[in-house]
Specification:
Elements: H1 2-31, H2 37-64, H3 73-79, H4 91-118, H5 122-146
Length: 148
């Protein structure tokens, strides 16, 4: 039971972190300026759209595990490992934020995977494995973009 509670807590922590990240991505999308505007405006939209799907999947996973997903902004702010960004309009700074945020999410997803593995929770394992694989690939791409 204790491991199940830890898993639920970590999943809610991940949900909260994704929610704040989602809003940060929206702000990047709205406020980007400069020579990479068109490229980054589209990329940020792609990222926040994908994040919105992940948020819904996490909430539904919590419900599947007979738990209640966090749903209040106050709780997201208090439990997120990512903080709200101040205004970012520079593309390079925005991409640096994304890479840092994704590494934070990746670390948390690995912790959830460890807990779900201990519980033989294949549904959560599969979800975390997919998210980890996706983030490892996009982190490589974002790192390459930042080196140009």
């Amino acid at each position: 039971m204790e491991n199940q509670n830890k898993l639920i807590d970590k999943l809610n922590n991940l949900l909260a972190t994704y929610q704040i990240h989602y809003q940060n991505l929206r702000a990047l999308h709205w406020n980007v300026k400069g020579s990479n505007f068109f490229e980054l405006h589209l990329k940020y939209e792609e990222l926040y759209t994908r994040t919105q799907v992940i948020i819904d999947d996490l909430a539904e996973r919590l419900l599947t595990l007979d738990s209640t997903p966090m749903h209040r902004m106050e709780d997201y702010i208090a439990n997120s490992l990512i903080k709200e960004n101040k205004l970012i309009s520079d593309g390079k700074i925005g991409m640096e934020y994304i890479l840092t945020a994704q590494n934070t999410l990746l670390d948390l997803e690995r912790k959830v995977l460890d807990l779900s593995g201990d519980k033989n929770d294949e549904g959560t394992n599969a979800m975390m494995s997919d998210l980890i694989r996706e983030k490892e690939k996009t982190n490589w791409m974002f790192s390459a973009w930042l080196k140009r």
